[in-house]
Design a protein that fits this description.
With 97 residues, this protein is mainly alpha-helical. The protein has five helices and no strands. Helix 1 crosses helix 2, helix 1 packs across helix 5 and helix 2 crosses helix 3.
Amino acid sequence: MDSKMEEKDFLACCGSKKFAEEMTSSGPFANLDHAIDVARDIWFNKVDVNGWLEAFAAHPQIGQNPSAKHPSDTSAQLSSLSLYLYISPCKSMFHGC
């Protein structure tokens, strides 16, 4: 990953300020796998319950148009990354749940 992302870029993906701050200070990342490993560590070991709730509250409600919260191409890419972060452990634990 060539360019360093800013806090606002990570906030577009995950509404947790702590997550965005930690990801910003941890980059730039050598590659996608490195970014995913760092993101997973931050999410599970540095973001507390309040940060998780902050992140979940930033997502659109079911049926709500997500474009208001995720207007850029970068945020769409980061949303894909967050989905991958969610699915990856599930796949390894349950062999493709």
